Amino acid sequence: MPLIMGMSVLLACQFAGELLARGLAMPVPGPVLGMVILLVGLVIRGRVPDSLRLTAEGLLRYLTLLFVPAGVGLMVHARLIGMDLVAILVTLVVSTALTLAVTAWVLDRLRRRMPGDHVP
Amino acid sequence: MTVVPLDQLWVYLSGHPLLSLLVTLLAFALAVRINRALGGTPLVHPVTLSIAMLIGFLLLVDMDYAAYFEGAQFIHFLLGPATVALAIPLYDHRERIRRLLGPLLLACVVGIVTAVGSTLGLALALGAQPETLLTLAPRSVTSPIAMGIAEQIGGIPSLAAGLVLLTGSIGCALGPGIFRLLRIRDPAVQGFALGLSAHGFGTAHAFARIGAMAGAFSGLAMGLTGLLTAFLLPLLVRLFGLG
To answer: Is residue B1 part of a domain?
Structure first.
């Protein structure tokens, strides 16, 4: 039963998130709002039920697998990507490297100045 | 006993969700094995590898993407509850997140401006088509949000989703090298940078390779980036004179 209870909680939060996103025409996807709803629920309750933790950790362990079906969809756009291939690839690689470096550097600097945050 | 001809059997199998579901799982399992055999290098990410193998398989057996997705959608569907499940690591690390809230927000805005600014600047300089340009712009946010934004500013939504995934695999490949170069060892900082620049793909990578703390901060970055980009991007696009 724990897996069924855990999955029901996750799906219920996603459902509430979808309703909220569509009802208020927000540009944010339902599952992201569902995550916020669950987080608020957990803060109010004060602890994570074992059934929920079991299900969530199982799903998150295989998170990478869940991206595969959408990724295979790239084949549909092979021709469009081919037209601007060099521009797209150079832009993606350079810009992603820059974003990673800038974000990590800024956060690392700011974090070191915070009192009481002593993780190496 | 009569034996059914092989081509008839294939007609049945290729129209059935069972085949693409099984092939997806097998491709992923094989990709994980290959990655492990290569010493777990981030350059040949199991997801990128399984996507390449599956595209090869579909081209080989001449199956179109819609038919494949009939079966693969059962895996795809789990992305929704998995996103909701990110609330649990966030809850576990709530103390540290609350303490670092200011720096996290600031790093997030700086990261988004870097991502969008460098993407538009580079693509403009390299002479990409205007349509490609506007499709590239939202590539640093998680796919469903990117599709919405691309549509709003005049790009191609479904291609935007594909570019988001490409960005994700590039981010995972580059991440470890960049962190070593900048001497960044805090798993929270690594996770946050991965979540911001490589969204869901980066978050999955952070969970699988760095740990739960990195995963939590990565999920936080992904959500925060999505929310903030939806507001910032239309402004930045206008700034570049594209809107």
So the answer is: no
Q: What is the ipTM of this complex?
A: 0.86
CA dihedral B222, B224, B226, B229 (to 10 degrees): -130
pLDDT tens for residues A50-92? 999 999 988 888 888 888 888 888 788 777 777 777 878 888 8
Domain that holds residue B195: 84-239
| Nearest Cβ partner for A69 among B76, B96, B188 | B76
Report pLDDT for B165. Answer: 81
What is the total residue count of chain A? Answer: 120
A54-58, B130-134, B237-241: segment of lowest average pLDDT = B237-241
The verdict on B30 and B91 lying in the same domain is no
Instruction: Identify whether B197 is part of a domain.
Output: yes
How many structural domains compose chain B?
2
- Chain B's closest residue to A101, CA to CA, is B178
B151 in the same domain as B64: no
* Coil/strand/helix, residue A113: coil
Tell me which chain A residues have a C-beta less than 8 angstroms from the C-beta of B149: 27
Same-domain check for residues B97 and B53: no
Q: Are B57 and B30 in contact (CB under 8 A)?
A: no
Query: What residues 41-60 of chain A have any CB closer than 8 A to a CB of chain B?
Result: 42-43, 48, 52-53, 55-57, 59-60
Q: What is the pLDDT of residues B13-44, one digit of tens each?
A: 777 788 889 999 999 999 999 988 988 777 77
- Cα–Cα distance, B198 to B221 (Å, whole number): 10
**Looking up tokens 């081509």, which residue turns up?**
B7
Q: Is the pLDDT of residue A119 over 60?
A: no
A104 vs B205: CB contact, 8 Å cut-off? Answer: no
Probe site for chain B from A63, A79, A93 (most B CB atoms < 10 A): A63
Instruction: Give the predicted TM-score (pTM) of the model.
Output: 0.80
Contact call for residues B98 and B77 (beta carbons, < 8 A)? no
